[in-house]
Amino acid sequence: MIEMFNVWKTYPNGVYALRGINIKIDKGEFVYVVGPSGAGKSTFIKLMYREERLTKGKIFVNGFNVERLKERQIPQLRRNIGVIFQDYRLLPNLNVYENVSFAMEVIEAPKKTIKKRVPEVLELVGLKDKMAALPNQLSGGEQQRVAIARALVNNPAVIIADEPTGNLDPETSWEIMELFEKINFRGTTIVMATHNKEIVDTMKKRVIVIKDGKVTRDEYRGGYSYED
């Protein structure tokens, strides 16, 4: 599903964000990306959906050669990827239904398909009764569920989540992680950058550790620690 071959990323100020990354993530895997702040985790995540461009190497996501895509082809890549952020990034003037349906409208899905699919996804995340609510009428956990529904609505092959529980209390964080488990069980590949030690240590998924721009550990059923 995702392959990186000798991936380097250098920023214009000369900072090396990633140094020679080689990773393969198979379809249906659930992978945590951990490491200290500034280690390169966010860059690693952003390269997958071409929010950032690599300096050297190759990245393939669901059959797309990411770096060689022309600008007009990038939306095709992103239709295959659902991205979830720590700060939700909901549109404040749209209600729950509209926030989720917007993701289908931008790819010009038929109205009939949208009307059928959006309630299905909102039911999956437990928000079918909140379709008319605005984001500011929801709790943080509910807002994150809307963000997850929006990421899911186009049936992506991959979900990429950057600190999705970072703004949530522990109980709500576990509810969100149970939802991710359900999504993964249905066959969606999940790659999640996180600082949540308890979740990583408890859930025992594959763990990729990035320090100083390098992969220092890649372990199945791994724990959070990134200390040498």
TrEMBL record:
PROSITE patterns: ABC_TRANSPORTER_1, ABC_TRANSPORTER_2
Topology in the lipid bilayer: Peripheral membrane protein
CDD domains: ABC_FtsE (cd03292)
Gene3D superfamilies in UniProt: P-loop containing nucleotide triphosphate hydrolases
UniProt xrefs under SUPFAM superfamilies: P-loop containing nucleoside triphosphate hydrolases
Main location: membrane
Keyword Membrane tagged: yes
Source organism, top-level taxon: Bacteria
Pfam families in alphabetical order: ABC_tran
Keyword Lipoprotein: no
One GO-annotated biological process of the protein: cell division
Domain ABC transporter: 2-225
A GO CC term assigned to this protein in UniProt: plasma membrane
Assembly notes: Homodimer. Forms a membrane-associated complex with FtsX.
NCBIfam families: FtsE (TIGR02673)
Physiological role: Part of the ABC transporter FtsEX involved in cellular division.
Family designation: Belongs to the ABC transporter superfamily.
Protein name as annotated: Cell division ATP-binding protein FtsE
Lineage of producing organism: Bacteria, Bacillati, Bacillota, Bacilli, Bacillales
